[in-house]
Amino acid sequence: MVAEPISTTKERQGTARSARQRVFSGIQPSGNFHLGNYLGAIRNWVRQQDEYDNFFCIVDLHALSLPITAEAMRSNILNLASVLLASGLTPEKSVIFVQSDVHEHAELCWLLNSVTQFGELRRMTQFKDKAGNNVEGISAALFDYPVLMAADIILYDANLVPVGEDQKQHLELTRDVATRFNQRYGETFVIPEPDIKETGARIMSLDDPTKKMSKSSANPASYIALSDTPDVIRKKIKRAVTDSGTEIRATPDKPALTNLLTIFSLVADEQIQVLEERYDGKGYGQFKSDLAEATVQAIQPIQERLAEFEAHPNEVRAILARGAAQARAVAAPKMAKVKSRMGLGSGA
Questions:
Q1: Residue 86 lies in domain
Q2: How many other β-carbons are positioned within 10 Å of the β-carbon of residue 273?
Q3: How many Cβ atoms are within 10 Å of 322's Cβ, its own excluded?
Q4: Percentage of residues in the chain with pLDDT exceeding 70?
Q5: 5 within a domain of the structure (yes/no)
Q6: Which of 61, 276, 293, 346 has the highest local Cβ count within 10 Å?
Q7: 64, exposed or middle or buried, with CB in 10 Å at 0-12, 13-18, 19+?
Q8: How far is it, in rounded angstroms, from Cα 310 to Cα 298?
Q9: By the 8 A CB rule, do 84 and 96 touch?
Q10: Out of 10, 93, 128, 130, which one is annotated catalytic?
């Protein structure tokens, strides 16, 4: 059921991988995962596994920027790992690990703080949005979140980072911090580039197409959870908001239909234009019914595999442990180089 571990031999990591660009991406273990997570990120990771040297990280340290119990953290980590594996990520093709199992992430974050400007962090849009009017009471971890993200990425000399538009500002900071470090201490880090998909990178809410689909929404009908039953999925799509008029078109003045057509296009692997032609003059009822069935069919195989992984949690833990060992094999020598460049340690 669970794939064999990825080889850790020099031969396996040699010629085939050295010629490929490296990709790093992190995802927070923060509860119930939804269709937007899958279509916007995980699905693309799965499809690109054969193209790149992949590092996929469950960023539990980032999750500490908001209050969470130890029990919830452990459960969320295991759940997310199972979702990633059920979706098609495999340790034969990618390094899959938990951030806190590789201490170099936190260590590099502290060192990068020395080349990060306070004003840069204060201008981060996501910090301002999440802090709101409670800046004095917000966690310092939320403020420093972008520096840890930078450490995550450049620790592995990632060439590409799959991000949505909402994370592009953080990646720009990563590039600035890495460049500043290289200028001060000599060429040390690769400067990463964003990998932003034109379609599906930002799946919107079913009840408000101006907002991103989010599992933290107070309205469960606004998102399709990967754990939703077929009947629940059908009901949610049936109730999804639409735009005025009857035409099923993806246009700027029809954000709700554009979102639903994007979802349909991705789950059914069909071009939006083809879908527009198929439902020309047919109305929203038939369109939504077919979209619901296509979504059910796309999610069902993931749910079946997820049940298998959830029934064998120790196998999931073993995959994460092997991934952490592989990640440390890259992170440890990189950190040794960083510390030497900075003159740190008794042997520097």
A1: 10-201+312-342
A2: 12
A3: 17
A4: 90
A5: no
A6: 61
A7: middle
A8: 19
A9: yes
A10: 130
Angle at 233 between CA 229 and CA 235, to 5 degrees: 115
Which amino acid is it at 348?
A: A
CATH number of the domain to which 247 belongs? 1.10.240.10
Return the percent helix, strand and coil in the chain, to nearest 5.
55, 10, 35
Give residue for tokens 């592995």. 156
Residue 235 annotated in active site? no
Q: CA 328 to CA 105: how far, in whole Å?
A: 10
pTM of the shown model: 0.87
Q: Of 245 and 19, which is predicted with more confidence?
A: 245
Choice between 302 and 348, residue whose per-residue pLDDT is larger: 302
Residue 238 catalytic?
A: no
Residues 245-256 have a mean pLDDT of: 92
How many beta carbons lie within 10 A of that of residue 89, not counting itself?
A: 21
**Are 172 and 179 contacting, i.e. CB atoms less than 8 angstroms apart?**
no
Distances 97 to 55, 80, 85, 90, 283 between C-alpha atoms, Å:
8, 11, 12, 12, 46
Co-location of 141 and 262 in the same domain: no
- Structure-block tokens of residue 13: 């990591």
Active-site choice (197, 212, 235, 339)? 212
Closest CA to 237 of 218, 210, 213: 213
Instruction: Tell me what pLDDT residue 10 has.
Output: 39
To the query of whether residue 197 is one of the catalytic residues in this protein, the response is: no
Q: How confident is the model at residue 131 (pLDDT cuts 50, 70, 90)?
A: low
Model pLDDT, residue 2? 40
User: Which of the two residues, 36 and 324, has the higher pLDDT score?
Assistant: 324
Look at residue 215 and tell me if it is in a domain.
Answer: no
Read off the pLDDT of each residue in 175-199 and give the average, rounded to a whole number. Answer: 91
Q: For residues 95 and 92, give the distance between their C-alpha atoms in angstroms, rounded to a whole number.
A: 8
Using DSSP's 3-state secondary structure scheme, residue 204 falls into strand
At 194, the amino acid letter reads P
Long-range contact pairs involving 134-138 (C-beta distance under 8 Å, separation at least 24): none
Domain co-membership, 288 together with 145: no
Which residue among the candidates 93, 168, 197, 215 is catalytic per the annotation?
215
Which tokens in the block code for residue 208?
């408000």
